[in-house]
Amino acid sequence: MSDPHKRPHGQQQQQQQQQQQQQEQQQEQQQEQQQEQPPPPPPPPPPPPQQQPQPDDHEPIPLLQSLAPSIFVSLANDLAATPFVPPASRIARLNAILAALDTHAVHVRSNMLALVRRECVRILREATAAEANITSRNSHEQQQQQQQQPPRKHRADGDVATMIANMQAPHDPSKDYNNADIPLPDFARVQPASVREKATRDLMASVSRALSELRGFDAHIAGNKAFYEQALKREIESEAQ
């Protein structure tokens, strides 16, 4: 007489063996199918990276009319994201004004120098283009004119004698030689004889103008700082009393 408790266990083992055999057969069939199928084609090569557009070195530069746009500088912080916290006292407010004035002056000077550099690049580009447009015929005609005509003098006959006489003059104790109000040279009085000479004159005029405006801006900032520094000094003395 068979044990009824052992029969179900034997049936479970048979079922598990059958399932394993079926799984092995399915794996063998899949392997055979993969071997019969041709290998998949290789993936296409990735597209070449797109080149970023390079800045055009010959992009036209407008004539520099004024350095006034230099006063517009970028904001250091996002005003919408950073809430404004008013100064706690007048002394804190004046200190914040002086700090902002120094920072603003540095950025304005940087903008002024950048505009002057761009103007110098524009002058050099125009000179290069003007030289390229000169034909060999015009160059030959200019050489003939220079051979036939004497070279032009850029100074009067008595200028050298006057300059040497001033250099040899004795020191006059009654005069103040520390004169800072020296007029700037007038480059427009002498007409340039060539494209390169014109470019040189324009470069000198641009740099001279920039130096003059930088000195004026520094004097303006110094006056503003002196005003707020005096106000700060008065506030500190008032609180100390």
Automatic annotation (TrEMBL):
<protein>
    <submittedName>
        <fullName>Uncharacterized protein</fullName>
    </submittedName>
</protein>
<feature type="region of interest" description="Disordered">
    <location>
        <begin position="1"/>
        <end position="62"/>
    </location>
</feature>
<feature type="compositionally biased region" description="Low complexity">
    <location>
        <begin position="11"/>
        <end position="36"/>
    </location>
</feature>
<feature type="compositionally biased region" description="Pro residues">
    <location>
        <begin position="37"/>
        <end position="52"/>
    </location>
</feature>
<feature type="region of interest" description="Disordered">
    <location>
        <begin position="132"/>
        <end position="157"/>
    </location>
</feature>
